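If you are new to this repository, start here. Below is one unmodified record pulled from the training split, so you can see the exact layout before writing a loader.
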Amino acid sequence: MYDELKDYVVFILKRNGFRVKKDFRCPEGWIDVAGFKTGLSVGIEIGDPRYVVSKLMSYPFDVRIVIFEDAGHKIVNGGIVITDVNGLCKVLKINCNPSFDEWLKAKQDKDYRFYQTVLKHLTKMLSNDIVAKRAIDAIVYLYMAEEVIEDYSGKVTERIPFVRLYPTLVECGLAVRDTREVIKPKTFMTSLTRDGVRIAKVAIREKLKDMRDELDKIIDEIGRRIVFVITTGLAERKGLVLREMNVAKAEISGKSLDEIYYSILPIFANIDIDEILKMFYRKTFTPLTALCKVLSYTVFYHKAKELLERLFTIGLASKVPVYDYYGEFLGYEYKASKEIAGILSKSAYVSIDEGIIRKFQNILQLAFLKPSKTKDLEIAMEREIVRRKAGGLEIVDRERFKEFIKARMARIIAEAVADIIS
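And here is the target side for that same chain:
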């Protein structure tokens, strides 16, 4: 019923003159529907208010609504209205004709009919319904990966998933190739057409229906609080992305701050802080998403990798081999689409202490040499690690600076971990 509710909200907002964005990207993830018209913006989430309020608050909507059946009608902190689908139009003072039930009876799912038509065509073309379903899996894989190398030159060493099915998808108008000039003519970059994307979205919706119990099991086994951190930290423009890195594995022993700190210290001792900071160049992050990103690439990196690997195993993520321009293998990226990310984020939440988030924001500002009145900056100046200059700060001793940032970041991350697992 979730997908139907979401489609109805989109329908009714459009009917009332809103410009509507489905799966709208907010600073802290994706929300189901955003609507805009002159003088009014509205963000709408469908699901348990405990898990979705934070995302709604991260974007400056004029009106924020959570649709949650059997919730009655109430307003919570931040002015968020929690109501059922029938209360939506009362809150926005718009016309709700037809009602959800009436709309549902008359609904015609054109995308699903198109999906069925394509599946029948693929079955006939490939003379095998199992291979046709594999072709649908290939479409989902391409949708999540965005673009995949298709190579017949022998230069590419890693196995390319579904590569034998890509020519069929191209022939059916579901995928398109772009030739790479350097190692032509046997290497292509393959991605989906609009029709391919249309099929992928329906296929993911159907997979989520079939795999929901398995997905909940994975979330529970990883840990719901940790899943929240991972989905918040790995969120990028089109979904979740985890890049392979060499991160030490450390078991968190004990629950006291000192025990956690000394457990995770080896991770920070062996990590290149420049690789962490590179993740923030020319990108916009809230203090919470920045903290969650560093957690996802340090203490919870192996949990994040396990989550994405398990999603890949059940067809809800892609494991994409990455190559440079000349076909040299660089490693893997795990990707999950915004639809999967949205479901994950509705299943988990943890409130991290604001004081910890502020401390992390301060050390990150110092790492990027942004002047601020903080204890960390005072200590770094006292130790002659940095000094002030006209218009900002400069590093006096680069190696000591990097070690200082790592040590402080490790301590703050330990505080965050203690808060998350408590």
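Two things worth knowing about this chain: The first strand starts at residue 19 and ends at 26. The chain has a mean pLDDT of 90.
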